[in-house]
Write a structure and sequence with these properties.
This protein folds into two domains: about 190 residues, Alpha-Beta Horseshoe (Leucine-rich repeat, LRR (right-handed beta-alpha superhelix)); about 110 residues, Leucine-rich repeat, LRR (right-handed beta-alpha superhelix), CATH 3.80.10. It starts with a helix and ends in an 11-residue tail after the last strand. The strands form four sheets. It has a 13-stranded mixed beta sheet, with no helix packed on it. Strands 7-9-11 form a three-stranded parallel beta sheet, with no helix packed on it. The protein is mainly beta. About 0% of the residues have low confidence. About 10% of the residues lie in helices and about 15% in strands. The chain contains three helices and 21 strands.
């Protein structure tokens, strides 16, 4: 009996440890804490809910409410997920799609009531794809010490990002940007990125369309985020800094630096990013005739170099057999389209328009049986038909 009790205690301790390090959401056991239920009611009263999405927010057990998840043992609210439920397209699979029209009918608005600060165990907060009509990010968000996921992207927030967010030392996902076409953009700015350095656990960071002032040291700051796997700094007005001798952020899988003022001095930083699968560098000032600089990135599935001034041959890109999406539109490529592009049999999108390619489209393009989107227009090609006989 003594050993049995000991074993039960070990199991309970193990379960508690799991709940400490994982998101332990359940609505099956403990009822919610009364003070947190009151706080949620006050929060709801400050919102504008035109579609009545929060109609379930009644009764005593807030753990049963829409968008709320609680600890199965204590009843504390752990998760508040009120993102707009309208599904939006993947920007790779549906390159030209936008948000569906019913997105606007599911928007929440109004104010963010200070009562939320009473959710002291909160580790997940998602208010994305709503419209809070020009309010600032509440500074008290920086008081959620247990927060590991924060997403308020594309929700109409304005002003400077509160540096208090740098207090969220457990944060793994921080999405503040506004890159979804058709959604309400945030209009945010930050004086620098120094406040990010204390977020040592970050895995995913989206600050797209945010004005980063005094961005000279952005690369040094990002280099301190050792566990970062996804980084989106598109359209942030950043420029190339002095290249680093050593890049620490080697865990990066997705990197979007499009719509900035980067030049080719940034290229040395790419060589260590061997796990990259998504790389978007469009609309910069990048120029090189040596595409060999990308050769270490053998895992690439998405490559967007459009609207730059690249020249030279595409042959080095023929080694990326995992590529699904390649956009080289609006560069200065010349000469013939190489036959070896036909080796990229995983391609679903191939965009080569607005360059100076000459000759004919090689027959090997016909072996790209998964190709759904292709564009060779605005070149100097002698024909525009690729025989797809290999796919029949």
């Amino acid at each position: 009996m003594k050993h049995t009790k000991h074993n039960i205690m070990l199991v309970l301790i193990f379960l508690l440890l799991i709940c400490k390090f994982e998101y332990c959401y359940s609505n099956d056991a403990a009822s919610c804490v009364e003070g947190e239920r009151i706080a949620l009611h006050q929060f709801k009263e400050s919102l504008i809910d035109i579609s009545n999405r929060l109609s379930s927010w009644n009764g005593f057990d807030c753990c049963e409410w829409e968008g709320i998840s609680c600890s199965s043992t204590t009843g504390h609210v752990l998760k508040l997920d009120l993102h707009n439920p309208t599904p939006y397209p993947d920007d790779i699979e549906n390159y030209y799609d936008r948000l569906p029209s019913n997105y606007s009918s599911n928007i929440l608005g109004g104010e963010i009531n200070y009562s939320l600060i009473n959710l002291t165990h909160l580790n997940y907060l998602d208010l994305s794809l709503n419209n809070f009509s020009g309010i600032r990010i509440p500074e008290f968000f920086g008081s959620f010490k247990n927060l590991r996921y924060l997403n308020i992207s594309s929700s109409g927030f304005v002003g400077n990002i509160p540096t208090h967010l740098g207090n969220l030392s457990s944060l793994e996902y921080l999405h503040l940007g506004g890159a979804v076409d058709g959604a309400i953009s945030n209009d945010l700015a930050t004086d620098n990125l120094d406040w990010l350095t204390s977020l040592s656990s970050l895995k995913s960071l989206d600050m797209s369309k945010i004005l980063i002032q005094h961005s000279e040291d952005w690369l040094c700051t990002i280099n301190k985020l050792l566990f970062l796997s996804s980084l989106n700094l598109a359209n942030c007005f950043i420029s190339t800094t002095s290249p680093l001798s050593h890049v620490n952020s080697t865990s990066l899988i997705s990197l979007d630096l499009s719509f900035n003022s980067l030049d080719s001095a940034y290229f040395p930083c790419l060589s260590n990013l061997t796990r990259l699968e998504h790389l978007k560098l469009s609309h910069n000032s990048l120029n090189s005739s040596m595409l060999e600089i990308f050769e270490p990135l053998a895992s690439l599935k998405v490559l967007d170099l459009s609207v730059n001034t690249f020249t030279g041959t595409l042959v080095p890109l023929c080694k990326f057999h995992k590529l699904i999406f390649m956009d080289l539109n609006s560069n200065n490529f010349q000469g013939s389209i190489p036959n070896c592009l036909g080796n990229l049999t995983s391609l679903t999108s191939l965009l080569l328009s607005d360059n100076s390619f000459t000759g004919s489209i090689p027959n090997t393009i016909g072996s790209l049986c998964r190709l759904q989107v292709f564009d060779f227009s605005m070149n100097k090609l002698t024909d525009f038909i690729a025989v797809l006989s290999d796919c029949l």
